[in-house]
Amino acid sequence: MTRRLAWTLAALVPLAFLGVFFAWPVVTLIVRGFFPDGAFSLDAFTAVFAAPRTWRVIATTLAQAAAGTLVAVAVGIPGAWLLYRTRFPGRLVVRALVTVPFVLPSVVVGVAFKSLVISTGPLGGLGLDGSFAIIVASLVFFNYALVVRTVGAMWSALDPRTAQAAATLGASPARVWWTVTLPALAPAIASAAALVFLFCASAYGVVMVLGGASYGTIETEIWFLTSQLLDLRGAAALSIVQLVVVAACLLVSNHLQARQARAQRFATDTTQDTPWRWRRDGAATLVTAVVVGLVLLLPMGALLERSLRTASGYGLDHYLALGAPGSGPISVPVWTAAANSLRTALLATLIAVVLGLLVSLVVSRRPRSAPAQRALGVLDAVFMLPLGVSAVTVGFGFLITLNRPPLDLRSSLILVPIAQAIVALPLVVRVLLPVLRAIDPRLRETAQVLGAGPWRVLASIDVALAARGLGLATGFAFATSLGEFGATSFLARPDQPTLPVMVFRLIGRPGLESQGMAMAAAVVLTLGCAIVMGIAETLRPKEARLW
């Protein structure tokens, strides 16, 4: 009974946190939309879905998500081979480099891509400004690392003897790929594709900056109805549509991740990477170089160039101006905003890691009964929901629910870290859960035979091995919190802005100096995320298959 009570509490504490700070705000916002005058009404659905604009927005969302997913998977598979099955100097640096975009603020990425395609940008003559192609490119920018790391981690664990046996029996390299390697990688590829589709369908910042009115999505339409028209009923109707899409993606992803976990039980523990060879790895190297160069580095290079461009040439003037006193809508120096970001990110990371560890320990259990197994699967899916629900919905929901007793947090500085922890929590679970699921049950059985009690087994095996993934989990949580913009833009106090909010404010101000300072602040934020992810990459355990 004591053990059951402890495991129940370990599940209830994170569920209570998610219920109060995620489900309650989101449900309240939706309920207010359907009960505008205290009585239930479907007028919102009738009005929203009768409008041609709504169907255009839904179609655009699905088209962008499908195109972004297909391109990310197509270019991510060669990158997975190169970075996880071949060995060359600087491989860890490249791994960290391709991971940084996943945790960058969306507003920064939108501005970086915008700087490429405007009339004065390097690609201004191609007519890509406001096009479908540039939006898809930005979505690939964000999700390339997800495909590379998910597929690459699985690929590095495959036993090469199966492919070698097929080759010995006369199969060509192409046939070995189609009949041996691809089927083995299928669960990882499908799992990555489901998550990429989820993230593409819920993209916000880059679509706001790059899409405009022509390529609005469900996410941007929720923002428009909520903040511009104050149409809560219409926003609630679209939120329901988004939740349906998210739930479907999560169900598919959860099923595919279970298949991936089962496949990993038969993975070899031997390091399978081999020295890089041009004849074998040349094609993958060229594809990866093009993607890294054009999709990842070129936008960041344009961002750096604009941060150094001044009225009199090139210099560090914009970086020096980051410490100047604020004026107008810029109420504090930018470096003060950077310090605020560090403080809130540290607190958000602490919350996310502690709760994520509890969730991972509970979900990684292997009960014998089918109902218990299904319950753990549902629990796992529940903690993925914050990744797919609109950050606008969460932020606005905070404002209308946490503004009165018993939880009046409007003036509290804890509100922003809580919102950031909600966003980071699923990533922590996704890092720690594969580590715990990879534990051989015979280790626990051996410890029990040697006389270790249940708590000793948990502490010496589960918690000890989970600690190997805490470095990577902490890195992802910190970098994600550092760059979170959607909910933070609603919640940050004017005198306590974070760095992403400050970048957005500076971008909105006219003049070369303000634009240059925005770019300089964005470069500082990018560099911070890159350093954090570089450190986290060195601490990555091989069991963290997803990442």
From TrEMBL:
Transmembrane segments: 62-84, 96-118, 130-148, 235-256, 283-304, 345-363, 375-402, 414-436, 457-479, 516-536
Membrane topology: Multi-pass membrane protein
GO terms under biological process: transmembrane transport
Pfam entry (one): BPD_transp_1
Localization, UniProt: Cell inner membrane; Cell membrane
Family per record: Belongs to the binding-protein-dependent transport system permease family.
Protein name: Iron ABC transporter permease
Organism: Propioniciclava flava
Source taxonomy: Bacteria, Bacillati, Actinomycetota, Actinomycetes, Propionibacteriales
